[in-house]
What we know:
Distance between the termini of chain B: 54 Å
Helix content of chain A: 25-40%
Strand order of the largest sheet of chain A: 2-1-6
CATH architecture of chain A: 2-Layer Sandwich
CATH class of chain A: Alpha Beta
Structural class of chain A: alpha+beta
Mean pLDDT of chain B: 91
Oligomer: heterodimer
CATH superfamily of chain B: P-loop containing nucleotide triphosphate hydrolases
Order of helices and strands of chain B: EHEHEHEHEEHHEHEH
Shape of chain A: elongated
Amino acid sequence: MHEYSLVEALITRVEAEVRRRGALKVHGLSIRIGELAGVDAGLFQTAYDTFRAGTVCAEAPLTLRQVAASWSCPACRTAIPRGEVLRCPACAEPARLDDGGDALTLDGIDLEVP
Amino acid sequence: MCTTCGCGDTALVPVELHEKILAGNDRAAKHNREHFLEAGVLALNLMGSPGAGKTAVLEATARAAAGKGWRLGAVSADLATDNDAVRLVKAGIPSHAITTGQACHLDADLVHRSLHGIAWQKTDVFFIENVGNLVCPAIYDLGQAANVVVLSVTEGEDKPLKYPTMFLAADLVIVSKCDLVPHLDFDMQKLDDAIARVMPKPNVLKVSARTGEGLAGWVAWLEALRLEHGLVGKIAGMAGHSHQPAGA
């Protein structure tokens, strides 16, 4: 699966921030995985736990928030029930995925700086 | 470091980023996208299950688009063998293989590297035939103008419901092997319904690479996309900037 390459990208980004701020240690990071992000949260956590060894994230717990996919009408805001056809029942507009539904986001890093 | 008394304490700083984890790939994809458009090339990311008929659709495209005067090109990704690239060359589409080893998807860097040394700038329509996989390729932007997902009638009407991320990413779904429908217990309406539950703007073409059914519509869609991207009338090969060394 591709969770390894995503964890690699994540750790590389954290390393860049550590260098940028002259940080001494990473105390934690938080990410969001949307239901439609194409990433399995469990596999991502396992890949992170496996590949953080020997990196700046070695002692940084990962806070992983999952975001459910929800759809609504961009025109009249009507919520589209899960599993239904992605068109507004009220005004026939194509539905829009609500924020975070396909997210794969590094939200924040807790850094110890001098 | 405490700046008031200089005591040397460290500080715990929460750094807010809210950045995509795939930002690096997105940057590389943006670079690819600029290259393609500057050179007047319409690039398509062709995805689908192993055996969906991606290569067959491309072979048939060479025949169907023959009258358009387009120069076609492709790179074809697989974990092993260059069989697909060989087939495409025989069909009249200059193609190169990308052998990914164990990688189950293409990413923008791999596409960028694979383009070095091949004359992609001299094409009008360039196909990136992704690894056969309905999961991983969906989330990696390669710099394409559009994502095309090939789904065959032998895969079951509920396939889109099982792989919503891929169908959400699709700009067009090509339903392939339609010549087999009389031999199957296949309900096209059920498939259309499933697609409508995962794609807010369903865009579906029903084709048969074998008989040529539906391919005129596919060629028309490609032509409309070229128009949309301002590529009609543009002379392919006039690249804005190049990584080629002088004299290459």
